[in-house]
Amino acid sequence: MTTRFDRRSVLKLGGGLLAASTLTPITSAFAQTASINYWHTFTSQSEAAGLESVMALFKAAHPDVAVTPENIPNPDFMAKITAAVVGDARPNVTMVSSERFEDLLAMGALIDMTDRIAAWERRGDFDDSRFASISKDGKLYGVPGFTFVDWGYYRKDWFDEAGLAAPTTYDEFRDAAIKLTDPAKGRYGFGLRGGPGGQNFVVNVIEAFGSPVKSADGTIGLDRDIVVKALDWYAGLLVKDKAVPPSAANDGFQQVISGFQTGQTAMIWHHTGSYQDIASKLKPGVEFGTFAMPAGPATRVARLAYAYNCITKEDGADAAWEWIKFWGEPDAAVAFLEKTGYFPASTVAAGDDRIGGNPMYKAASDTLGFGIPQPSFPGAAGWAQSTVLPALQQILIGQATAEQAADQIIEGLAQAIA
Question: pLDDT tens digits, residue range 18-56?
């Protein structure tokens, strides 16, 4: 049975670095030093180091623009930007994830950047698809600063010892997870992220089983039978196969990453942004490897989730544009990747030898050829966080069946777009 809903536009509020001295400062475009503030959602040490690298390069090239960054934790972002818009206290630039774009546009939080982007000398460095998640009715509202490329990490030493290859399908993935589980040693095959931030992987699995949330014609809905099968497989890695740590329902980013680093799990799903964290504890190519997201029964789903930098008010827009477009410079993009693992959105930067020459990034480079954006519509982020994730958690802790969770997810989707 397929349940579909007509889409409505409803606003849902709420919930190594190159030496800086080698860069030639541009001729000042401002009569005096311009100051802008930049809201972002970076939280980890590697992200902070990456931002510092970009800011150092920017300061060397643009001494006439002072940037003041401010971290807004992801869970608080929508509430804070909403209050800033209502209270006329917007930042000059804000970082926008693709799934939040339509909500922010609906509340009038973003400034049209179409003409600036069209005249930009580096516009040709970016494939048109990079702007798909930040455009509406032919207008562009941001520039991709970097890309979250979904992929997996696996304990290469464990796989080699067991005679297993990195998985390419869901069946191979499940088989490896079961074979590499040994509770007596405190080892589990897969570190499932059922806690904060795990909602998007549930959506990915549902789509990989054959039920896209948003179809090509723009309609939004889910096939209940497919959702049930997807949830049964995904949650079943714990409740049936026992190949997942019992703590999965509460495991967020830190727990999943730490579990992999310390030898609790053989595989995890994340994105390239955690590469430096993993490599700080395990030896690349020896103790761990990377793999492209495996193919599901119907299709292969891996997200290319772009983080966009957007102008959020007209005041100081020229200085804001200088900061935004600087993220498209290859040296800035590679410097950020070297600290964080976040992939460049620019095809020119992504082809840099510092990236292409590293075999650990091959899985990410391959994913650029088939990866897709997260489904985006007003209310999408809230639905995934407030309905999809709790539904998964209830299965993991034995308080709901896959059928009951599927009904919650479908009902919540109907409410989100009503």
Answer: 333 344 455 556 657 899 999 999 988 888 999 999 999
pLDDT exceeds cutoff 50 at 396: yes
| pTM of model > 0.85 | no
Residue among 137, 175, 135, 169 nearest 152 (CA): 169
**Looking at residues 158-178, what average pLDDT do you find?**
98
Element (H, E) at 154: strand 143-154
CATH 3.40.190.10 region(s) of the chain?
Answer: 2-147+306-367, 149-303+375-416
The CATH homologous superfamily of the domain defined by 2-147+306-367: Periplasmic binding protein-like II (3.40.190.10)
Dihedral sign for Cα atoms in the order 248, 188, 361, 52: positive
Compute the distance between CA of residue 299 and CA of residue 284 in angstroms, rounded to an integer.
Answer: 29
pLDDT, average across residues 131-152: 94
Determine the topology of domain 149-303+375-416 in CATH.
Answer: D-Maltodextrin-Binding Protein; domain 2 (3.40.190)
- Max Cα–Cα distance, the chain, nearest Å: 69
- Amino acid identity for residue 265 in this structure: T
